[in-house]
Design a protein that fits this description.
Blueprint: E1 23-24, H1 51-56, H2 60-91, E2 96-97, E3 104-105
Length: 108
């Protein structure tokens, strides 16, 4: 099977926002993501790594933000996005998603 890149078919499409190649939403890794568990972006030692050192040298609010508010909010909003993508897939089974900017192109 050959592809005509000048006149793409229904399965091949560029993202209208960022021009990356889109992939089917049904086969995408974005559909079943388990968000909320983040990697630590800090390098080296940080005063906010422990509640005691955070209280003495850092800020307690930053400790609470990094270890409680941020993971819980990522988990809740990630589940909300997954449910929204499932609803889109139910209505538009041939939808495409951009792996770069996560733009969804709805197709029946």
């Amino acid at each position: 099977m050959t592809y005509d890149l000048e006149n793409p078919g229904r399965g091949i499409c560029e993202c209208p926002k960022c021009r990356y190649t889109m992939e089917p939403l049904r086969k995408s890794a974005f559909l079943a993501r388990n968000e909320g568990y983040m990697l630590d972006s800090g390098v080296g030692w940080d005063a906010d790594d422990n509640v005691a050192t955070s209280f003495l040298f850092g800020s307690l609010s930053r400790f609470l933000w990094r270890h409680f508010v941020e993971p819980i909010s990522h988990k809740l909003f990630g589940e909300w996005r997954n449910r929204a993508r499932q609803r889109v897939l139910k209505e538009f089974p041939a939808s495409l998603i951009c792996p770069h900017c996560q733009y969804i192109l709805r197709r029946k």
